[in-house]
Write a structure and sequence with these properties.
Low-confidence stretches: none
Number of helices: 5
Mean pLDDT: 87
Helix content: over 70%
Largest sheet: none
Strand content: under 5%
Shape: flat
Distance between the termini: 80 Å
Number of strands: 0
Length: 128
């Protein structure tokens, strides 16, 4: 009789642990997918203009004015930060040296590829 009671308790414990695991797994999946599906804010003037045009259903005249405002603002902000470019580049280069110091030769090759892609994307973004 004691053996049967112990068996039932063990079975109940396994079922409870399983249900808790399933519930927590489901909750974690929900939180992760809801966070990952959040719309990302527009980045760069072209995306901002496209989003405003779409979301606000701008007329062609409004689009022309808004485009001018966004482009002018972007130019002003870039001019504001331009004097900091050399310092920012120096900080980036120092970080790259520090990262290379902890990488294996195989990782360094992949890191250099990553940096080339990153730098190309930055150059493309800077041209806007």
């Amino acid at each position: 009789m004691e053996n049967t009671k112990t068996r039932r308790e063990a079975t109940a414990l396994v079922v409870v642990v399983f249900l808790l695991g399933a519930a927590l797994g489901g909750l974690a999946t929900h939180v992760w997918t809801s966070h990952a599906s959040q719309p990302q804010p527009p980045h760069g003037p072209d995306q901002i203009i496209a989003r405003l045009s779409h979301d606000l259903d701008l007329t062609p005249d409004q689009l022309k004015v808004v485009t001018g405002i966004v482009d002018e603002t972007h130019t002003q902000v870039r001019a504001l930060y331009a004097p900091l470019d050399p310092q920012r580049d120096q900080i980036r280069q120092q970080a790259r040296v520090r990262i290379r110091a902890v990488l294996t030769p195989e990782q360094t090759v992949k890191f250099e590829t990553f940096l080339r892609e990153l730098d190309a994307a930055r150059k493309k973004e800077d041209r806007r």
